[in-house]
Amino acid sequence: LVAIRGPLIGANPTTLMWADRTGRTSSAEPAGAPDGGRLWTRIAPDRSRALVSLQTPRRAEGWIVDWARDLWSSCDGCVTDLGSGAWSPDGRRFAVGSKNSIRLHTVDGSSPDELLVREDGRTLVPHAWLADGRIVYQSSDDFTAFEVKMLDAGSHAGRTILPRGVGTEADVSADGRWLAYTSHQNNMDVVMVQAFPGPGAKVQVSSGLGTNASWSRDGRELYYITRATPDGPAVVFMAVDIQPGPTFQPGKPHELFRVTDPQRCGILRCYDVVPDGSKFLLRARPASGHQTVSRFDVILNWTATLQPSR
Description:
- This protein is an all-beta fold.
- It has no helices and 27 strands.
């Protein structure tokens, strides 16, 4: 048996940073920051704090970074091993996904968790909690292809709005009219938009590769990320102007800024943006935190360490 010893994926140290629309960066971390890799962040509706999913060498943890009080606080019930979640519109609760359910967690711990929806044998990933109480989430039975579903307020069963394999990373505009998502088209991920909850025409808004779309609060802009080069680590943040009106009218995508730190978000958008689009919350890797594989361990007769089968 040959083993590479090291931390869990995502556990390498990272920090949070702000980037304005020109790419100028600054630290977004108060003193006392916990160790580990920042997986994804979600800014609270009032902008005073954010939920951070953090990967340590042993487990995923939830933390609240509070900029108003300049501190970090642990939020044990805010994340699962999968991470993922969405703030309630009033900022008091969080929808947390797990391997077969979504539950509502009160951030201050004043009330017990509430089971919202359960789908046995599936993985559920909440993405958006709308002002009218609807929740948009992803559901999969094998973690390779997802359905995007919507849960109406008061309901305990989601209904499919994007069939399996059509799209991931869904986000809904603040007015509840448009659904943005990543779709695999012609061997490339692109950002698509269609009417929410549908049906409706599908419009590609990214110019070539695009993932992890996010709306501005007023619905006048849609953001997404792409790569500076196909195989390079640099990430480019793009914006698309949206003209108001009865139909969806996107403008030409234009670059806002680029960062050298990779923002490989996967099926979860790892960055977030303040409501007016003036600042983006990103993750950066400290220069001293780079880790490399320096050895392989060869374990002889490893089967002798296993418990005998019964």
